[in-house]
Write a structure and sequence with these properties.
single chain; about 450 residues; alpha/beta; ten-stranded mixed sheet; five-stranded antiparallel sheet; 22 strands; about 35% helix; disordered N terminus; NDUFAF7_sf; mitochondrion; SAM-dependent_MTases_sf; transit peptide
Length: about 450
C-alpha cells in the first residue's frame, strides 16, 4: 500500500536529500554465509594464543562450554577479547559496515530518526542512543542531519548516548565525534565512563550497559550489533533437542571442536519452541533480553528502536561464522583473532518483545533505503558531480548497499515502536456527526512505500 508523506515530513526529507555531501569509496565487506561445524588450525596457527589457553583450561576444569559462552569469552573477555583489544573496523580491520561505505546510509537514518520524533509529536527531549557504535561514523552522519534540520528540532534538548564495551573503539569514537573535547571518568565504576561534547555543543556520553542510559524519550539505533551477541546452538536428534557445545578435540589437543550434548541442557529445554520445524536452531537469549529492555523503555518513556543487521524471519538454521581480514574464518580456529557473528532471528526478537510495543519489519535493506529516498539522493549527487572517479565511487557505494547479491537483501531492518505511533485514529459520534478525535499517524518511514513527488 502506498503512503504519502505529510507536507512537513516531505520538506524535511527534501532538505537533507538535496544537501551536498562528500562521496566515499565502496569497499569489500563481509557477506558470505557458510556452514561451519568443524575447525582446523592452519600451519601458522599452531602456536596456541592466550585465548585458546584460557578456553582449554576452562573446558578441562568444567567440561564442554556452550557456543554462547564461547562467543562471549572470545569477543568480550576483559583481557583478551576480540572487541576489547582490537580496532576491527574499516579496510585495515576484519570487516566494514554500511556507514563506512557511504555517508548516505547514515543520512537517511538521520531522516528516519527525525521522522519518528515528529511522529511522536516532537517531544522536548530527544536522546539518540546507539548500541555498538563502531567508529562513530553512523552517529556523525546522523548528527550532521540534526544540524541541517535544527530549525525542525527547534528547542528540543538533543543528546547522544553510546553503549560501547570496547575501550579501543570508544577512544576512536571520541576522537571522531568530539575531537579533544572528551574526558574519561575517574573511576571504572562510574556508569558514564566517558563524557564529551561535539563541535556544535551537543553532549555525548559513553556507557558499558544499556541499563545505565538515563530514562527519557529515546530513539535507539542498533546497526550490526545483535549479530555479534552470543547465540546458543541446538540440534534436533533422535532423542530430542540437544545443545551444541564446544570441546577440546581429543585427537588434536591444541584445537577445539563442536560436540552435541548427550542429554538436555537447561537452554535446550527452555529456548527451543515446541512447534519448531527446523533441525538446527540458533537462539540469542542475550539479544532477547536487550529487546525486552528496549520494549520496556519505549513503553514507559516513548521513542522507537531501529535494528539493522544480517538476519532472517525464523527460516535459517546454521549461520554462525567468523571473519578475519575481510575473509571467512573458521569460528573455532585461533579464537580471539577474528570477529564472530550469527544472523539475527527477527521472529525471535518479535516474540520476546511482547505485545506492549508494535513491531515493524523486517524488510530488506534495499527496500528500506529505496523507501527512504536513496535513489533520489544518488541522482542529486551525480548531477552535481563532474569528477569521473567520484561518480564511479558513488555508483559503487550505491550498488554495494542495494544490490540483492551484496548488502541489499542480506541486511534487514526491523523496528520497535510505541503502539500509539501507528494506532488508527479514534472516532466518536457527536449527535449525527462523526468526528475524528486525532490525526492519522504519519507513515513509518523506510517501512512504508513513501512518495517523494
Amino acid at each position: 500500500m502506498r503512503a504519502f508523506l505529510s507536507g512537513k515530513t516531505q520538506q524535511l526529507v527534501s532538505r537533507v536529500l538535496f544537501h551536498p555531501v562528500r562521496p566515499s569509496a565502496a569497499v569489500r565487506w563481509r557477506a558470505a554465509q557458510v556452514r561451519l561445524l568443524c575447525s582446523s588450525a592452519s600451519d601458522e596457527e599452531k602456536h596456541r594464543p592466550s585465548m585458546l589457553r584460557h578456553l582449554t583450561s576452562k573446558i578441562k576444569a568444567t567440561g564442554p562450554i556452550t557456543v554462547a559462552e564461547y562467543m562471549r569469552e572470545v569477543l568480550t573477555n576483559p583481557v583478551t577479547g576480540y572487541y576489547v583489544k582490537n580496532d576491527m573496523l574499516g579496510p585495515d580491520g576484519d570487516f566494514i559496515t554500511s556507514p563506512e561505505i557511504s555517508q548516505i546510509f547514515g543520512e537517511l537514518l538521520g531522516v528516519w530518526i527525525i521522522s519518528e520524533w515528529m511522529g511522536a509529536g516532537g517531544p522536548k527531549q530527544l536522546q539518540l542512543v546507539e548500541l555498538g557504535p563502531g567508529k562513530g561514523s553512523l552517529a556523525a552522519d546522523v548528527l550532521r542531519v540534526f544540524n541541517q534540520l535544527k530549525s525542525v528540532l527547534g528547542v528540543a534538548s538533543v543528546s547522544l548516548h553510546l553503549v560501547e564495551v570496547s575501550p579501543v573503539l570508544s577512544r576512536i569514537q571520541a576522537q571522531n565525534l568530539t575531537g579533544t573535547q572528551n574526558q574519561e571518568a575517574d573511576s571504572e565504576d562510574e556508569p558514564v565512563y566517558r563524557r564529551g561534547e561535539t563541535s556544535t555543543g551537543l553532549p555525548v556520553s559513553w556507557y558499558r550497559r544499556l541499563d545505565d542510559v538515563p530514562a527519557g524519550f529515546s530513539i535507539f539505533l542498533a546497526h550490526e550489533f545483535f549479530d555479534a551477541l552470543p547465540v546458543h546452538k541446538f540440534q534436533r536428534t533422535d532423542k530430542g533437542w540437544r545443545e551444541v557445545l564446544v570441546d577440546i578435540d581429543p585427537e588434536k589437543p591444541g584445537q577445539l571442536r563442536f560436540v552435541v550434548a548427550p542429554s538436555p541442557t537447561l537452554a535446550s529445554s527452555t529456548y527451543v519452541q515446541a512447534d519448531e520445524k527446523r533441525h538446527h536452531v540458533e537462539v540469542c537469549a542475550e539479544g532477547g533480553v536487550i529487546v525486552q529492555q528496549l520494549a520496556r523503555r519505549i513503553t514507559e518513556d516513548g521513542g522507537a528502536a531501529l535494528i539493522a543487521d544480517y538476519g532472517h524471519d525464523g527460516t535459517k538454521t546454521d549461520t554462525f561464522r567468523g571473519f578475519k581480514d575481510h575473509q571467512l574464518h573458521h569460528v573455532l580456529a585461533s579464537p580471539g583473532s577474528a570477529d564472530l557473528t550469527a544472523d539475527v532471528d527477527f521472529s525471535y526478537l518479535r516474540r520476546v518483545a511482547g505485545g506492549d510495543v508494535a513491531c515493524v519489519g523486517p524488510v530488506t535493506q534495499k527496500l528500506f533505503l529505496k523507501n527512504m529516498g536513496i535513489d533520489t539522493r544518488l541522482q542529486v549527487l551525480l548531477r552535481s558531480c563532474s569528477d569521473a572517479s567520484t561518480r564511479e565511487q558513488l555508483m559503487n557505494s550505491y550498488d554495494m548497499l542495494t544490490n540483492p547479491s551484496k548488502m541489499g537483501e542480506r541486511f534487514h531492518f526491523f523496528s520497535l515502536l510505541h503502539p500509539s505511533r501507528i494506532a488508527k485514529p479514534a472516532k466518536t459520534t457527536v449527535g449525527m456527526k462523526l468526528e475524528k478525535k486525532s490525526p492519522a499517524p504519519l507513515p513509518v518511514a523506510g517501512f512504508d512505500d513513501l512518495s517523494f513527488s
